[in-house]
Amino acid sequence: xxxxxxxxxxxxxxxxxxxxxxxxxxxxxxxxxxxxxxxxxxxxxxxxxxxxxxxxxxxxxxxxxxxxxxxxxxxxxxxxxxxxxxxxxxxxxxxxxxxxxxxxxxxxxxxxxxxxxxxxxxxxxxxxxxxxxxxxxxxxxxxxxxxxxxxxxxxxxxxxxxxxxxxxxxxxxxxxxxxxxxxxxxxxxxxxxxxxxxxxxxxxxxxxxxxxxxxxxxxxxxxxxxxxxxxxxxxxxxxxxxxxxxxxxxxxxxxxxxxxxxxxxxxxxxxxxxxxxxxxxxxxxxxxxxxxxxxxxxxxxxxxxxxxxxxxxxxxxxxxxxxxxxxxxxxxxxxxxxxxxxxxxxxxxxxxxxxxxxxxxxxxxxxxxxxxxxxxxxxxxxxxxxxxxxxxxxxxxxxxxxxxxx
Length: 406
Ligand SMILES: *Cc1c(COP(=O)(O)O)cnc(C)c1O
Prior knowledge:
Organism: Streptomyces cyanogenus
Strand order of the largest sheet: 1-7-6-5-4-2-3
Oligomer: single chain
Enzyme class: lyase
EC number: 4.4.1.11
Helix content: 25-40%
Distance between the termini: 82 Å
Pfam families: Cys_Met_Meta_PP
Order of helices and strands: HHHHEHEHEHEHEHEEHHEEHEEHEHH
Bound molecules: pyridoxal-5'-phosphate
Number of strands: 12
Family: Belongs to the trans-sulfuration enzymes family.
């Protein structure tokens, strides 16, 4: 039996003695959250599946729970109960915070659970109003528009943020690059316009490899860790990277509402982070080449690709986008993104279906738009599949039509 690492060595935001501020991202990706392992005689991180932890000192437990109730800091010493914190999940949180350049990070059962916790944390302070810029991920849009958590949203364009702020505004929410249009925002300018209101940037598409929103003034950086951070299509998770004060509030919400991440998911996410820089760069190189070929293709009406780069492509076809989806063979026709394999989906039918059609179109999500999440396959194989899925070359189709008319 091995001894489980004490919470303080693996905990988020603990700037312990082994922390070195100068390590490069690629180094952090494989070492952060693992700094104590060698000292413990371990190489792979242990998976702690305990839901509860024995303690013969209930006075100490009382003090630890009182401290958590005060500021939400990770309890010092051995873990108490699975909903309060888990050492394996804490390793992932530590690593993600290091990659995003924040003090702390708090993991949740999904990206939506993470966003819900942020909204609840602000509402609980009487700050129920949210200012947001479209497009957002479809379910984030829906959560805000429907006011499911008792929040009220004002949708605005980036230039209108300062005017949209109210005394009860608790959050400004944006995505850049946005899902699914890949629209990009100037986060630094937005953070400035927010004044003292926290800016939440959903960084799911860029990942910390391409963009670290906290460096540009975003107080909260949200990820659907289901996507690139996990990276293999087998983990559902969310995480918020932020300062320790906000992290404490989020841990308290997580404890009280129960949207915790399973330790096995925490393990897989930590493993996913170690290859994140390599995966993102390789998939981005594939994407850039596919963008070049799509943009030159007469069957494609429009291609959107972020200036930032990345492995997501949005494009519109002259033909029927549903036909393209029905014809792919190597590429998987499925929602979600950020996996090692390439996925394609039709946002108006799936990821953004829950958004009102006029709002969706107003945000630039046309009914012809297809969203491609480029994976790590050989780029020529990917192109061969897309090429046949796009159908007959346009000129030839026109000729055939002309012949039929004759
Ligand atoms: C998928 C996604 C979410 C929601 O995350 P889940 O893990 O599915 O709950 C939020 N934001 C963006 C940008 C996403 O792509």
